[in-house]
Structure formats: structure tokens, C-alpha cells
Amino acid sequence: MCGIVGYIGPKEKKEILLDGLQELEYRGYDSAGIAVIEGEKLNSFKAVGKLENLREKTKNYASDGFGVAIGHTRWATHGKPTELNAHPHLGSYSYVVHNGIIENYQELKNELLSDGVNFLSQTDTETIVHLFEKYHKEGFDPFEAFKRTIERLEGAYAILLITEAAPDTIFFAKNGSPMLIGFGEGDVYFASSDTPIIGKANEVYYLEDGEYGYVQNAAVHLFDTQGEKHFTKAPLVADKAMAQKDGYRFFMEKEIYEQSRVMGETIMGRVLENEIVLDELDASFFEDINAIKICACGTSYHSALASAYLFERLAKIRCDVEIASEFRYKYPLLTKDTLFITISQSGETADTLEALKMAKRAGLKSLSICNVDNSSIVRESDRAILTRAGIEKGVASTKAFATQTMVLWMLSLYVGQEKKTISSDVLKREIDAMLHTPKALIVEDTLHERIHRLSKRYLHGHGFFFIGRDIFYPLALEGALKLKEISYLHAEGYPAGEMKHGPIALADSELFTIALMPKTMHYDKIKSNVEELSARDATICAISPEPFDLADDFIQTQYSSHPMVEFFEMMVVTQLLALEISIRLGNDVDMPRNLAKSVTVE
Ligand code: F6R
Questions:
Q1: Which atom of ligand 1 is nearest to the CA of 301?
Q2: Which pLDDT score is estimated for 28?
Q3: Strand partners, 172
Q4: Running DSSP on this structure, what letter comes out for residue 271?
Q5: Which of the residues in the chain have pLDDT under 50?
Q6: So what's the pLDDT on residue 239?
Q7: What pTM did the predictor assign?
Q8: Distance from residue 85's CA to the centre of ligand 1 (Å)
Q9: How far apart are CA 32 and CA 44, in angstroms?
Q10: Which of 326, 571, 599 to mutate for ligand 1's pocket (most ligand atoms within 8 Å of CB)?
Q11: Mutation choice for ligand 1 from 1, 295, 344, CB with most ligand atoms inside 8 A
């Protein structure tokens, strides 16, 4: 999703912007651009495609002396990914970058068109810069013109605007899309997330919805509906080394290998010998709660689906799960004895955030499970449990999914513990399995090598079915999503028992079935389902601890005494399979086509 970087100060600005945008690449983009004003000089550059193209275009340019600068990576929404549609957008003497969607842009554009304004792009963003210049030309000073512009906008935005009319100033506004201000030594940075300013700024302020203002020289003036306000900066603590590839071919590969370690962090201090401790929640949190509703999107939705089995089975609490974009428009019936949980890796997913706001308006208690502290979803929730996965750079989520699922498993035990619906024996059995999980996530060379060799047989065909039962059904959905995201091959996840109700019609030797066959859960049932497919000549790749004669290919996992341990082991297998197939197909594993890491539009 779009990324924003801004800078005001004396340093060379091109490199600050390009390096910052590079850090935001993981959000996904299809064009990029920068604009710089130094003294009277206004320069801007745009390029379609990867940032190297923009680097190439700017190679003979370097800024000089004090100035203001803004940069943007665009993920196309209104209008194709072309240079004209790339940000920054120019009026006559001002530039704007924007993340989000201006919902009333057509109405504003019509108004400006009737004033004789000429539009160059198809974007909603361009209306902002023309509206600003309209008010400025009417005689308002630049800040008043900016303020009036913001007041006219409906929708989600993070905006930076620079203008020759105030060449020592950056104007900013935030509503619904993320943006922060970083404070360095006599200079100020803006960014959509922490990463671009790590190592540059020492302190940070995370803008809240409805805040806007300007930075003149190094002084930040912040406003909301009540007028100018004071704000408190927080120290910027983050470790950039974590975000490097460490010798792996792709971030996704590194993140698969990291799962064992980060899982240790996720459970640290939370999973004790006989008890689950969640400092984020107090004893009364579940007092009036009789049901759980979880809303999420994509991979996060799959972790939610898996957890619904656990909440009902272990904690004996009703739990239903909804895709956030569906929930938003269904006029859901919400009762105040329901805890509303949102799950999000980024904490910025627009649909999930809106679902959360709806639930809050209905008076529900809210809890988010998230990987990014201070993200919009975390800040909007009553309580938050962080997954502690560390920065995830691969667009296809791996360690975030693993840690989300772990937090949800812990939470199910915690609810059982608080509501006294779980016996101490069952609690102990679950805790033992949890403590064993980091070990089960270690990627053995032999396993990776085997998957690498097998992957060459799965580069064609007319599709994949990932099948599983119980918690292995959401894992099948997730395995299929991972494969399709990075290989661009068609893949579906199905409950194994459902195949005979239609999908089995597709079975032939070119249909690849990835069968999740845990030994601890419904083994005989899923075996029969796989036999039915094998009898119709489908090509079967079985993932199981138990050798299976009818499989064309077999990936052996460890025997274990607990389904969740099998779950995590099989998760790694499906991730590696997707990775190896994608690499063989020559795809960009970390930045698959058309996808964005942080989906901040509806
Ligand atoms: C897939 C993937 C997406 C996200 C989805 C929700 O690998 O990462 O399906 O899970 O876009 O994003 P978050 O979790 O950030 O709310």
C-alpha cells in the first residue's frame, strides 16, 4: 500500500527520500516519486515500477542546503500505475503526496473543473493540491489554505504538502491512514511507519486521526478540532539489523527460519509451567463476556478460523469468525457480552480497522492481536496483545501467522483459566505442547532439501487442492493462499470431507492435492478422503508422520502427541513448498505482483 516519506532540514534530501521509500517497499507499490524545494528551486521525479527506476532517473540530481522534500510509493487505486498518476502531484507551485482514498474526490474535482482547473492524472489525490492552491489564490495564507482543504476532504488520508508559497514548510494531515513525525538533530522526518526513520531520528510522535499542522524549520505545530495542541514525543527504539536478509535468498525464507526463535519470544513470560499470564489483560476483562467474535482479513483470518476450534473446544466459549470486509456491510447483530477481537499483522488494514470501529460504536469490548505496536488497530482497541514476530518484510505472511495463531491458542487457554472452564490436566497438556512448539518450528536441512527437490514436479497442472480437517482446514486455506500469492498458480483450500460434494469432479492426474494428514487428529477420516481422490487419479502429495502408500509424493513430519505441534510443523512444510515452487518459477518471492503488505484501502 502507498508509502510516504518527508524531510525538512539541511541534509541531502534525495538519498533520505529514496532510502526511506526503500524501507517501505514491503508495503507494495507500482510507481514512485519525489519532490524537493530548496530555496526557489523546485524539482520532482517520478518513475513507474521498482525504485531502481527512480534512482536511475535521479542519478544526476542532488539537493543542496536547507529545504523540504516529500516522497511516495504508490499502489494504484484510482487510475493505472503510470507516471502521470504517480505522486507527488503538482498544482501550479505546490506538490502533494497522499496515502488513502478521498471518497468525495469526484465532487471536488467537478467543482475545480468548473473553475477551469486542468487535471493531469486520474487520481483522487490531485484534487488536494488544486484545492489548496484555489484557497491560497483566494488570499488565504498557506496554512489557512491547507486547513480549509483538509476540512473539505472525506475519506482516509495521510497527506504531506509542500509549496513555493512557503518554501520552508511542510504541511501534514492524518485521518485513517498511518503517519508519524520523527525528530532528528535540527531536522524533522515524516513516514508511514518507523522503518524509514530508524537511525536518522531519535524521537517520534505517532499522529492521531484528525490531527494536522505544519513544520517550519524544525518546529512542529500540531492542531486538531480544539486548535493547537501540545504533544509528547516518544523515544524511537527499533533494531534495523533485524530487517536485513541475513544471507537468506529472500526475506520470506529468512522469516520462515526465524519462526522457531520468534515463537520463543511470543510465549516468553506468558506461558508458565502451569499457567498462562497475559499482563495486557486484567482479571475482570472476561467477567461479562460470554462470546467471542473475531474479524480479520487474509492470512490473519485463517489464524482466526483455527482459533475458533480452540476457543470452543478448550475454553468452552462461543466463537465466530468473520472476514472484516463482509462484516462491515452486513448489519451484524452485536451484543455487549461479546468480546470483539481483531487480528492484523500490520495493524493498518482498512477493513479490519473499520470493523473494529463499528464494534466499538456498538459498545463492545475490544482486543487486538497485532504485530505492530502503536499501529492504528492497536491504538483503537481497548487492549492489545502483541505477537512479537518482529518486522515482517516478505509480503506473503509467515511468522506473523505463526505468532498470531500462538497468541490465540494462549488466549483460549487464558479464557478457560479465567472462566474456570478448563481442567488443570488439560491446561498442563496444552502448556507442555506450547513449550515444545519453538523446537517443532526448527527447519531441518533434510526437510528443506526434500521440499526443494519435490517442488520441480509441481510447476504446472490445472490447480492445487490443499485439504485438511478441523484446525488443519484453516491451515489448508493458508497453505493454498501462500502458494497462490507467490507462485501465481491456482490453489484452493478445502475441508477434506467436502471434496466429494463437488470439487472431486476436477480430479485427474493434473490436479495436485496437498493432503494434511496429522496422526493426532482424524487420521483415518482424512485417509479415506485422500483415497477417494487417489482412486480418481489425482496426484497426491501427503504431509504426515505416517507413511502413506497411495501418495505420489510424501513429506514426512515428526510424530507428535499434540495436534497443534503437528499444525505448526505442517505450516512450515506448506510455506517452504510455496517458496520453492515460486523460486523455480522465477518469481519475486518477497514482492509478488499486485500485492501490498499493508492494505490501507477498502
Ligand atoms: C497474505 C497476507 C494477507 C494479510 C491481509 C491482512 O500473506 O499477508 O492476506 O494477512 O492483507 O493483513 P493484516 O494482517 O496486516 O491485517
A1: 10
A2: 67
A3: 160, 213
A4: B
A5: 243
A6: 60
A7: 0.76
A8: 26
A9: 11
A10: 599
A11: 344
Q: What is the pLDDT of residues 236-259, one digit of tens each?
A: 866 655 545 767 899 999 999 999
How many Å lie between the centroid of ligand 1 and the Cα of residue 480?
Answer: 14
| pLDDT of the residue at 244 | 59
Three-class SS state of 343 = strand
Query: Is the separation of the CB atoms in 94 and 132 below 8 Å?
Result: yes
For residue 133, give the nearest of 91, 88, 87 by alpha carbon: 91
Task: Name the helix (H) or strand (E) containing 265.
Answer: helix 251-267
Pairing assessment for the beta strands 318-323 and 188-191 based on DSSP bridges: unpaired
Domains of the chain in sequence order: 3-245 (3.60.20.10), 251-440 (3.40.50.10490), 445-584 (3.40.50.10490)
Residue 463: all three cell numbers together: 490447480
Residue with cell string 495436485: 512
Count the neighbouring beta carbons within 10 Å of the beta carbon of residue 446: 9
CA of 296 to the centre of ligand 1 (A): 8
Cα 195–Cα 201–Cα 205 angle in degrees, nearest 5: 80
Give the model's pLDDT for residue 27: 67
Residue 586 contacts by C-beta under 8 Å, 6 or more apart in sequence?
Answer: none
**pLDDT confidence of residue 243:** 47
pLDDT at position 553 is 96
Where in the sequence numbering do the catalytic residues fall?
Answer: 2, 597
Distance 298 CA to ligand 1 centre (A): 5
Residues with CB under 6 A from ligand 1: 297-300, 344-346, 349, 352, 396-397, 481, 485, 599
| Partners of 322 in the β-ladder | 295
SS3 state of residue 492: strand
For ligand 1, atom 9: residue with the closest CA? 298
d(CA 119, CA 2): 21
C-alpha cell at 59: 542519478
